[in-house]
Amino acid sequence: MVMGTQPPHCTSSRTQREQQAALAARPDALSPADRYQELFVAVQSGGVFDDSKTFVDCVPLAEPAAILDAYRKSHRQPSFDLADFVRRHFRATRPPKSEYESVPGQPLCTHIDALWPVLTRHPSTHPANASILPLPRPYVVPGGRFGELYYWDSYFTMLGLAESGRTDLLADMVSNFAYLIDTYGHVPNGTRSYYLGRSQPPVFVLMLELAEQHGAAQAADHRSQLQQEYAWWMAGAHELSDANERPRAQASRRVVRLPGGALLNRYWDDRDTPREESWLEDVATARACQREPQEVYRNLRAAAESGWDFSSRWLTQSAPVSPAKNAQQPPRAASARSLTDICTTEILPVDLNAFLYKLETTLARLCQDAGDPAAASEYAAQAEARRQALLALCWDAGQGAFFDYDWRKGARRSCLTAASLTPLFVGLAEPDQAAAMAATVRARLLAPGGLATTECGSDQQWDRPNGWAPLQWMGIRGLQNYGHAELARDIAHRWLSTVAEVYQAEGKLVEKYALRELPADASHGGGGGEYPLQDGFGWTNGVTRALLAEHLDHAAHSACAHTAPD
What pTM does this model have? Predict the structure, then answer.
């Protein structure tokens, strides 16, 4: 039995020490903006650091209250230097990029296996009074600017841990996520206090399924955490009136009741202020439009909860995007719009609701196995109701694809994305829908380097031409689930070739990749977004390692780093 479900008298001395260390270092729920107030605003608006995330991850070198008091006493003095004040009172925590470099001549698979210790963090390294949320067990971070545990990233990282034989870390990761649910009532976006207002796609159920397959955990031991997470996502549902009383759609936090009574979910954040890790960027976005700032901030935060931050998927759409006439060429680009058009909270995402369907069906099974048929029947009914609503609202038979749904307009969205494959990934789709989806993917989302993120191109990082490891995995698995093995293999081979090409040229794996045809001297490293391309990289390592184990004939196995990165 793993930590989180053991009675106190059964807990090992090692686990007791880890838990005590985590609790001793546990910060209160105050975020850096709450804690440092006008000092926080001064630092972020003053551009002391190039990256807004740097300051909120800094370790204070004294008690935070004392630092704030010192700032208040000195900042009006003529000789005051804000940057110097920050240097004297805080320590930055960014790791050097050289941590992720390969040894020249090292094969790709060996490089990934060697990275797990580099990306692993331990409870003893949690500094007091920082924004980090301490954890009781070792854990794996993505890398680069992302030096904490992230929710949905971790599932895809764990795929690689399993293939590398690191079942110890697999069990530790499960225990940490159970601890987060027990401690905070949900899994935060990441283990920082400024992430507590939101989560990410609910994939703890997938982690448990994976860990159970490798003997690292038992899903039944974590039924209570799954139920608690589900209750968190459904909070507010009972506040929405019956459809017969009010036929218009209603929303409360992450739940939307549609005409006819169906309940589906959206992304949300409990706060409506600028994201602290992107404070300057969010303030600039709000100032650039005529909308209420709080509305803009809430929608930006909700998009961050989706993990797709950011994408044309979350922007207002005035007309459908024209399908590509040539599958090897991207369709016309999105119109020149910005995040001022963001409307995430008006969208019912097909992938979020597919994940919740997976959670509901799993809870139904676990409750049945535990001798609670009443609860099992309730979860099964909720799952089937969600499935029927998704099939009715999100499936477009004419285009052969699933689309997100705009609950305010009462209409399907027009942006075709790789999220369309998530219903196949969780087994929600009908076989004929999967066949149509496979044809649509081949015609409209298959790029030279793998599965395109969206059909529509833009300068947002979760749009074409970028490709992302988690989307490759879910697309490949979804197609395999319904017997479309040839297309799944094609996507896997294209993706592995893309990753191997960058690894051979630059000796590293990165966060995202450009999937288009490029000149021989150009890099496939992805672009766009709020920050530079990150090295590391957790979920790329995990998905690539898992795909290498399945495709033993692929040339990526012989890819070696020819040079170390600059």
Answer: 0.92
Tell me the Ramachandran region of residue 262: left when phi exceeds 0, alpha when psi lies from -120 to 50, beta otherwise: beta
Between helices 108-119 and 538-550, what is the axis angle to 10°?
Answer: 140
Coil, strand or helix: which one is 94? coil
Quick one: 111 exposed, middle or buried, by C-beta within 10 A (0-12, 13-18, 19+)?
A: buried
Specify which residues 333 forms β-bridges with: 457
Helix ranges restricted to H, 370-484: 373-393, 422-425, 431-440, 469-481
Report, in angstroms and rounded to the nearest whole number, the Rg of the chain calculated over CA atoms.
23
* Euclidean distance between CA atoms 230 and 101, whole angstroms: 40
Per DSSP, the residues of 142-175 read -BTTB-S-BHHHHHHHHHHHHHTT-HHHHHHHHH
Give burial (CB, 10 Å; 0-12/13-18/19+) of 560.
middle
Task: Name residue 396's beta-bridge partners.
Answer: 401
Contact 328, 273 (CB under 8 A): no
Specify the pairing of strand 250-252 against strand 255-257: antiparallel
Query: Which stretches of 273-372 are DSSP H helices?
Result: 279-287, 293-306, 350-369
Give the C-alpha distances (Å, rounded to integers) separating 358 from 20, 51, 210, 352, 425: 34, 37, 14, 10, 10
Q: Which of 93-97, 284-288, 517-521 has the lowest mean pLDDT?
A: 517-521
Q: Is 440 helix (H, G, I), strand (E, B) or coil?
A: helix
Report the Cα 51 to chain-centroid distance in Å: 20
Q: Which amino acid is at 225?
A: Q
Active-site positions? 309, 511
Digit-coded pLDDT (tens) for 531-553: 778 888 999 999 999 999 999 99
Q: Are 344 and 191 in contact (CB under 8 A)?
A: no
Whether the pLDDT of residue 55 is over 50: the answer is yes
Whether the per-residue pLDDT at 563 is higher than 90: the answer is no
DSSP secondary structure, 54-78, as one string: HHHTPEESS-HHHHHHHHHHHTTST
CA separation for the pair 325, 486 (Å, rounded): 22
In the numeric block, the tokens 């206090």 are attached to 193
List the helix and strand counts (H, then E) for the chain.
19, 16
Contacts of 40 (CB under 8 A, 6+ apart): 32, 33, 55, 276, 279
Per DSSP, what are the bridge partners of residue 190?
150
Record the tokens describing residue 212, joined without a space.
């159970």
Cis peptide before 202 (omega within 30 of 0): no
pLDDT in tens, 57-111: 999 999 999 999 999 999 999 999 999 999 999 999 876 666 777 899 999 999 9
Q: How far apart are the first and last CA of the chain?
A: 45
Measured on CA atoms in the order 366, 372, 375, 378, is the torsion positive or negative?
Answer: positive
Cα(99)–Cα(111) distance, integer angstroms: 12
Tell me the helix, strand and coil percentages in the chain, rounded to 5. 50, 10, 40
Q: What are the tens digits of pLDDT across the range 376-387? A: 999 999 999 999
- State the pLDDT confidence band at 522, using cuts at 50, 70 and 90: low
